[in-house]
Every structure is written in C-alpha cells, then in structure tokens.
Structures
1.
Amino acid sequence: MNEGIVARRYVVTGRVQGVGYRNFVEHTAGKIHVAGYVRNRRDGSVEVFAMGPPEELLKLRKALERGPMMAQVGRVSEEPSEVEARYLGNFTVEFTE
C-alpha cells in the first residue's frame, strides 16, 4: 500500500520563524500531496518531517530552500527518517518542540 513512500527530516535555518514559513510549508505539502508535519524549534529553526515518493520530496526540498517571500533561508539539512503511519494522509502544523 505504501510502496515507494520514503521519509525525510529537514531542519531549516535562517530567518524562518515569524515570517509565515510553517503555513507556506503546510500549503506546499498539500499541493504536492506529501504527508508529515512542520514545527518551530526553540533554537529558531524549523523542523519538517515529510513522507512521500522521492520525486515529491525533492519538490518539497526545493520549496523549503526558497521559502515564503519574507523568509531568508540559510540552510536546509536533510536526513532519512522512518515512515510514521500516524502521519500518512495528512500534513499538520505542530507545536514548538
């Protein structure tokens, strides 16, 4: 059922809090049908956990690097992660970790 689905965890640094970044990520993920979540981190970065086909995650990463108009993305780090069934089928904005 979930063949071809992979998971990635991204950490985005720069001016990415208070500029609509999480809403931008939620909207983008919905458009390309990627599941997971986005949340602010206490260190000022934004964490994105995403699951989907590799080609869709590549589209998401390119959007993360661009960000919304008011953001200034410094860096996007990426690491493989485990698929988490509880996030399949939706993308949410979560509370700060």
2.
Amino acid sequence: MAGPLIREADFVQSVADALQFISYYHPADYIEHLGRAYEREQSPAAKDAIAQILTNSRMCAEGRRPICQDTGIVNVFVKAGMGIRWDTDRGLQQMVDEGVRRGYADPDNRLRPSIVADPLFARKNTGDNTPAVIHVELVPGTTVEVTVAAKGGGSENKAMFTMLNPSDSIVDWVLATVPKMGAGWCPPGMLGIGVGGTADKAMVMAKEALMEPIDMHELLERGPANKLEELRIELYEKVNALGIGAQGLGGLTTVLDIKILTFPTHAASKPVAMIPNCAATRHAHFVLDGSGPVALDPPPLEAWPKVHWKPAADARRVNLDALTHEEVKLWNPGQTLLLSGKMLTGRDAAHKRLAELLNAGKSLPPGVDLKNRAIYYVGPVVAVRDEAVGPAGPTTATRMDKFTDLLLEKTGLLVMIGKAERGPVAIEAIRKHEAAYLIAIGGAAYLVSKAIRSARVIAFEDLGMEAIYEFDVKDMPVTVAVDSRGESVHQTGPAIWGDKIKKLKIPVRVA
C-alpha cells in the first residue's frame, strides 16, 4: 500500500509558519524555568536582567514581534519516514529554503536577514536568510517529523569542541571552558553537549540536544535515574556555582538546564562538543502526515510570570546630546542609566569601513560625527506598522574590540553600547581615553526598541541591517559595564558571586 502524500505546499507553509511562531513565542518550559530563576535570584543586576528578558518575552508574544533582533540562522532537523511519498519536483533543501524565504518576508512580522555569502570574501547578505542548515535522517514510518530552530550568532559563536583522552574528565573540561565563553551567548540559557561518534557527529548532537524540553526542575525533584542524569545535575550545579549569572553580571543562574546526547565512538577517542542556547531560545517541533499544513499552539499568556520590568528609582538619566567626559567620569560599574537623545549605530562591517577610511586619512561619511557621542552595536529588525524601528537589541561587543582604540583616538567617540564583556585590548583603550562601555540586555530587543523614537540610515546603506543608523532614543535602559577607569563589571560581578556561592554555601538549585 502506498504511503501518505506529503505536498510541497504543506511542507513549505509549515516551515514558514514555524519560523514566525518561534520568532515571538518562547517555549513554555523556558518561561517556567526562567521564572523560577527570577524568583530565587539574589544579585540585583542579574535579577534586573532576567526581569527585562521576561517582560520582553511577554511583549513579543502579545505584539507578535521578534524576541531578539538576531532572528538567527535556520537549523532544520528532518526525520522522514521511508513510507511517505513527496508531491514535489524540488529537493528538500529547496523546499526548506522556500519556507525560510516566506517566513522571513512576512509583512506583518518582518524578520531580519542575517545570512551572508560567500563566507570568506564577499560576505554579501542573501536578503532572505537562506540557505538553511539541514540535517536529514531516514526512519521507518509514514510521517515527516521536523524540528525548526533559529540560532543566533551570539550563542553560535561560542560553540566549543575538544578531543579528550578517554580517561579525561568531561566535567573538568566544561568547568574550564564555560568561563572562557564569556557572556556573548546571553545567559541564562542552556548548554547542549554531544559526546562520542566523530568530531562532526558530536557537534550535531550538541545542537540537537538543545531542542529537547527543559526539565531540570523536574529532574531535581524526582532525582536521577541513571548516570547520564547524574552527570547533567553535577554539571548544572557546578556551572551555576561559577557565579557568571544573567548576562555575565554575576548571579545564581547561568544555565537553566544542561542536555547531553551520546553516540558510540572509537576506543582511542572521546570527542566532546558544547553549544549554548541563549535567552532567545527558539525552536518548534511538528509532524506532517499528509493531512495538510501544521498549526502550532501558542503558550497561554498565563504561562508568563507576573514580572513587569521598570527602571530602578535611582537610575541616572543621561542626555546624549550634551555628553561630556565629565559626565562619563561620574558613572560607576553596575549603575543603571537611562539614555535620551541621538546615538549612531555600527557593527562589524561598518567598523571595518570606518577603520579603512581613518587609516587612509579620509573623511568619514556625511553625518557620521562621533565626537562626544555614543555608538550602539546593533543590527535592527526592519520596522512594521507604526514602529520607528523593529526589535533592536545589542550585538556582542568583543567583535569590535580591535577597532576600539582607533575610533576613540581618531573620532572623539565617548561611549559604546553592546552586550557582554570587553576584552583586555578594548578595556585598556577605554581606560586610556576615559571613555565608557555600556550594555543593553541581550534577549530584550523588543523592550529596548520601545525607547527608540526615530531611526534613519545615514551611511553604508548597502550593508542592510549593518548600515549606520541614527537613533533618537528616550530613556533607553543600559548598565555601565566598563567605566572610565577601566573597571569591568563582567570581571568583578562573577568573581563576587562565585565567591559568595562558595563561602556562604548559597544553593544553586531551582527545585
């Protein structure tokens, strides 16, 4: 008997709908576990960051706009039953890419195209976020199981791999590696770990492990049933005991869960891969059986905890249009600022062009005057409806470290805004020029965008989302991460909270 017929139109529509769905709905398990982390968090900075993420999450669910401005590189895991038939003349890659193209171009919720080709030289944006990365498995059965994920660059860039000796400790490697990952992956999130097989197999398993439901709370309540669950709990507790905390600011929760998949491997090998999932964890699972496209059920609004972020009463208001060295010198690490006025934006590609112009002794483009101004490391989502701009959260600042001293010295730039820590080269440049680095919360892009009153492209329009914009903002919330003296909260915060957890024996469980 012939198996069910899977129509191309149904497959493509289901992929497109899933990408829209995961852009604005967090999985319910993530919301629940993050809510528990918020309730028990004792670090004020980390608690504020989690409050912004939770508030942003509900705003996105209600407004149907992206949780994060980085709407990801699409990863698709397909398990195709060998009993099915396809009604299409296209290959699987073509069908998935058509679903991505439609999903990202939806006029009611435009998603940011972030994919560039080729990766080595031109790095030109493909304009529709294709192609997707696909993993296919042929399995017995008469259905097609599909898991769709959108993986942000901040967390993807922190993927780690090692080839351990068979006698080496995975726990030791993880605990030595996580602090080196910094906060660019926007904790609190998950760690997916793949062990065994070959190097490529381990990496795929680590990615696939992130698609599993978050169940650490339930696991801690019932206790481990096998050695793998014992290992998950051990890693969960020891990673959180590092004190890295939300956004790397120091706190009790760095990971909400740790997932591990294994595969038989060569007797001489122990390949281990680790990939984090960020605060914008996005994935959905659906099954096609030939009856039509799939409709996903959104989490009920009651699933979100009653957390409504608002700035602290002692937050300092800053007029960006009258920014001075004297004002910047008053800021302290960990302090909350509310920024109002005009700022410029710029990411990797824009910084590269600016550096080339400065090194060649040429003038910067008209309108790009950085003297005594702030630059925001962001690539926003295109606006829809009455928005000034779409979700506009920060990108990882360390990618701009090598340009920092040049821009501070040659342009008079005073303030940089991004996410996560700065490296030693950038921190020294900030100290030398008595500038400052501020962070906006990664995973709160829609919340941040509500502070942006107007946006216009002023240079490098051909770079798309990496063009230089001018934003006019009102009370945009940020935290001082590196002050004019070169003190970094990403160094002091985790050190303080790691010591507190150790000395005061603060429990790191959420059960």
3.
Amino acid sequence: MDLKLKDKVFIVTGGAKGIGEAITLELAKEGAIPVIVGRSVDEANALAKIIKKDGGKCLVIVMELGLEDVCKNIVDSAIGAFGRIDGIVNNAGVNDGIGLIKGSPTEFKRSVLTNLTHYYDLVHYAIEYLKITKGSIVNISSKTALTGQGGTSGYAASKGAQLALTREWAVELLPFGIRVNAIIPAEVMTPLYTKWLNTFNQPEEKLAQIVSKIPLGKRMTSSHEIAAMTVFLLSERSAHTTGQWQIVDGGYVHLDRAIS
C-alpha cells in the first residue's frame, strides 16, 4: 500500500531509540523525511547513517526537550533544512517513577515538564506550517493514562493530558484540515522498559507474568507494530480519522479484564 508519504517531512521526538526509532525507520521506508529529535547523540547519528545509506534523507537535532524556546528552534531547523513540515510525532518521555508517596511537588512538576509540555510547545510553533500542508499529528501516550500503574503520578498525569490534548486539538484544528490522533501502547519492549524490568529482583519472572496476561499471542507488542499504526495515521490513507485514541496492545488493556 502506497501511503503517499514520499518527501514529506515529519518531526519525531525521541526518534532515535525504542518506539521512536521504529517510527523513524518506518517513515524512511515510506520515502518520508524524518527529523530525528532527542538527546541520544550516538543512536541518532547511527540511525541517520542507515537512512542515508539506503538513499533516504533525514535531519538529526540533538536537544533536551522541556524548555519552550527549544521547540521553536526545532521547528526553525526543520523549515530551514526542508522548507516544510507535514506532521509531528510527539513521542519523547520517560516513566520516571515520581509517585504520590515517593515523590514531591517539585519532582511532580519536573516530571510534567519532561513528559508533557513539549508536546504543546512543538505543535504550537509548527502550527502555521501544518496549516499549509494540512498535516497530521500523532501523540504517543501510554496505557498508564487509562489503567494507572502506581508510583508514577507525573508520568500518568502527563499521558492522560496527552489524550485530552488529542481531542482538544482535533476540535480546534478541524477548520484547517489538520488531523490529530493518539496511540496508546501497553507492553512494548524498549530500552526504558528493559530498565524498568531490571528494577525487580527476578526480571524474567516479572516479564513472564506480564506476557501471560496479553491475550493476543501471549507476547509483547513490537515497536514496529506501534510504528506501523503511527505512520498509517500520519498518512492520507487515514484521511477521515481524527480525535481518536488507538490502542495497540494485543487486547491487554480491555480483553484481559473481560476474559480472565
């Protein structure tokens, strides 16, 4: 299926590792031009090398997200390099374990800054360019927004707010033909997920316990499966889809509770 993404420009935050890396590669595979944003210098440069070796184009922007002017600089750099922006994938964030009991107001605010505010900032500064291209926005959220996890108030609050912003922006941007959707992953094996597993005394046992509760195939969702849905939502093939929360999780969030 031709997704008609050739030479279109998409900013992908956290685009060098985990789910972001998979999204970047999927965009490049479709002939799009990913702008890889994040703080992982070596990983981003290695990814860019792969894309360019295969004849593709991309741009690496190494920045720490959070401060407002950073996102303006990202947009300016993308426009300076390619002259257009066709979409944004808000993906960067970290489940930092800032809880209600084991946390503080200061840490909570810092967590929200890390996980949420740059979603708004980046779209705000890119909006005039997205109006021109009638672009698409995909916010990567998390099942923690729907189910809770325990011990991660900042992250969960941010992920819930991302879902609210998805619906809010979908309404506000309707007159401009800009579509906004969210993806809700659950259990996806990424470097950050591996780091979380290793906080348990028996990580393999914990993983087996989680996988046993994933109804479809009794396996983790792959980063590539999240990427495939993301790129589809960015493309014209989903031209009448906006304001939606797409759960890609093998039935983990809903089916497990219905059939167990």
